[in-house]
Amino acid sequence: MRTDEPRAIHLKDYRAPDFRIATIDLDFVLTPEDTRVAAKMRVQRTGDRSAPLVLDGEQLKLLALRIDGADVPQARYRVESERLTIDSVPDDFVLDVITEISPEANTSLEGLYLSKGIFCTQCEPEGFRRITYYIDRPDNLAVFSTRIEADKQQYPVLLSNGNLVHSGDLPDGRHFALWQDPFPKPSYLFALVAGNLGHIEDEFVTMSGRRVALRIYVEHGNEPRATYAMDSLKRAMRWDEEKYGREYDLDIFMIVAVSAFNFGAMENKGLNIFNDKVLLASPETATDDDYARIEGVVAHEYFHNWTGDRITCRDWFQLSLKEGLTVFRDAGFSADMRSAGVKRIEDVKFLRMRQFQEDGGPLAHPVQPQSYIAIDNFYTATVYEKGAEIIGMLKTLVDDEGYRKATDLYFERHDGQAVTIEEWVKCFEDACGRDLKQFRLWYRQAGTPTVEANGAYDAATKKYALTLKQTLPPTPGQPDKQPMQIPVRLGLVAKSGRALPLTLEGENAIGPEERVLELTQPEQRFIFVDVDEEPLPSIGRRLSAPAHFKVPMTAADRSALMSRDTDPFNRWEAGQALATDVLLEMADTAKSGVAPRADAIYVDAIGDVLARAEEDHAFAAEMLVPPGEAELALKMKPADPEAIHTAREALIRGTAEKHREAFQALYAKLESGGAFTPDAASAGRRRLRNVCLRYLTAQDDEASARLADQHYRTATNMTDMVTGLAALTRMEWPEREPAFAHFHDRFANDPLVLDKWMSLQAGSPLAGVIAQVRQLMQHPAYDTKNPNRVRALIGAFSANHLRFHEADGSGYALVAEVIRALDSINPQVAARMAAAFENWRLYDDKRQELMRTELDSIRKQSGLSANLFEVTTKMLG
Ligand code: 0A1
Ligand code: ZN
Q1: Residue 1: pLDDT band by 50, 70, 90 thresholds?
Q2: 267 in contact with ligand 1, CB cutoff 6 A
Q3: How many CB atoms lie within 10 A of CB 643?
Q4: Can you tell me the distance from the alpha carbon of 473 to that of 194, in angstroms, rounded to the nearest whole number?
Q5: For the segment 452-463, what is each residue's pLDDT rounded down to a tens digit?
Q6: Ligand 1 neighbourhood includes 124 CB (under 6 angstroms)
Q7: Closest C-alpha among 593, 726, 586, 601 to residue 648
Q8: Which of 123, 187, 188, 266 to mutate to test ligand 1, by most ligand atoms within 8 A of the CB atom?
Q9: Which of 48, 122, 283, 423 has the fewest CB atoms lying closer than 10 Å?
Q10: pLDDT tens-digit series, residues 509-526
Q11: What is the DSSP string of 825-877?
């Protein structure tokens, strides 16, 4: 158990630093065991005259400390575990700090570390302090130069931020490179890479005609797998010019893919570092989802060049300033590259699964948090995805034109600064002349609002009165909430499917077929006139706010909207709502020991989806997938994992039986003989065909196994291969083992593909899965020190709702055991894995007790990290 409880940092305590570091010249002499870092900094006093200079630093060996060239006497400075304090310093001076670090011993993957023999860095949010003593906070912007020296044969490639200004050979087989970044930046954007890497190269001509060299560095042999990322990068660069007027600013833009990385990727100025999982792709090794993810992440990191790098955050409470905005920007890009409607559905699914769940549980926090213990724990769905939803609402409120004016103003006003969310919102007020006082609550109040819509039609007056009511539940530390400004996009649909005009009482022109109402009070009534017939309300289209839209409706009306709403998003929404109602009822039946039967209204509505499947393959695929088990668990009290699983299986089987021929016909028709292309249309076709396979193998019988095996064996791309295996992993038929063995042998030397092999097995609903996961932990490819491996096996298992929640607690025990072991290796990843227990209060008493016990055992572990201390304490709290 920790004796020294880590302290929380509060936004209200923000103070500008007493000093600023204006320039820093770094000199690295790289070796795996003891890298020497010499830093020369120009330090200027900006605040309190008597304040000592306090620099952040962790796990550093201090070798020398000089002020204006003279050694600082020992009595004048103090080294503690997290800082260096120097008393009585001048107002403007040059500070030399020489430190020694051990990249090889660094398993936390923060600061400078080794990934498969490649030196690389991760400094966001607080990794730079593991490289040298520094004012390691984002409001200190400095001009960096970086000299790197290393053995030439082992580390032929030496990279850092900015432009290469000098390089050459040194005695003893060594060489060096000198990089200069002209743009002042916070330390979290610093990067260094050194290793034996191959690369691909291209060029981009910017809108003002400047030539930019583009390079992607990968392990030798992986070059062909980087071409899709390069293509995505060029498209992202063009898109940002066209949509936001943003041009790239250095002569070179580099990306490096590494295998050991804590998150997806990192936007270091001019030198993005990527987890290879979100960069490398080929038809044989990557699924369609991988391709889409790569495109999105490459764009995300590139877009940070303006939203994050040129304009950065004043402090970490402003994290959503760059992350929410950049997620919103990458979503816009993906929507333009692919199908906007399907992209929105995917994003809403993710938001509901991850963010709504977070917002409804013990880790709920505002998009602008008010305090944290470990900032690493706040790279959350709330900061990222809800943050992006807030930007989307702003755009809805001020329209496309207002949005462009506001963002133009933001870039002009704040270029080169470290700013706050408040300054961002102010740009919208100033550019669009709107008062956003109430809107700001979206950043400050945690929790997901519920918007309940009730309509009443009066045939005599042809009026339709719509009452909208909002509620926001209490969240940790926020018992009372104020009403929010909620944009509610809606349409009224006639029984025939015709869109009815929306004319509000008092308006003299006929209204549009879709409009946005602004709900600002706890309850408001809107009267629509000249409504020809009793309409079906289609509320919250495209999820116009990150809220639960509750629209009481009969199953028949939901099914009518499911096939006839003019807005495709809400057709999908109606289908999900209907499936949820049906599944929750079926789960109740299953719980009482009776076999549930698929609901006829839902199954019939699926017939309609199948009949129209050719209109839009990817959209039809989305329509055919009922909500997942974990999503249903959020709505059942107490959640019963077995009953939910039984219900969902029964619904899929019932649907499959009723529409067998249609699924078969579609499955046959969608087979494509041509060469693989990763474009959205081809991916949509594969996705729909693969959803058909799910239904055609729903019986899990011998014939299903044969079909799944055949699907796997005849696949010409990774998407189809994993779909075949995903079906087989549900079954105990003799086809299962040989197919998995075949896949294993084919990809034995490809860790990223073996990750899929691990995940598929960990996701199996079969009873032996826990023993199997334990066995896979002994597999030579499994490695606790590589986050991708841990996420592929243990992360996938914790997402296996049925088996993670095994009634005897063996699933919990397994995951908790891994978290405890992982904490001393990599606390950031350990704390993220702990999110598996986030919703422990949703389950029955027995499971609650089992989960609580595991959380408690984690919290009591000796040497517990601040990261894991924070999340477990809050979860148990
Ligand atoms: N800024 C990155 C996310 C990121 C955060 C922390 C990391 O390492 C500890 C790595 C990446 C992004 O939004 O892509
Ligand atoms: Zn980001």
Answers
A1: low
A2: yes
A3: 22
A4: 50
A5: 999 999 999 999
A6: yes
A7: 586
A8: 266
A9: 48
A10: 999 999 999 999 999 999
A11: T-HHHHHHHGGGGTTGGGB-HHHHHHHHHHHHHHHT-TT--HHHHHHHHHHH-
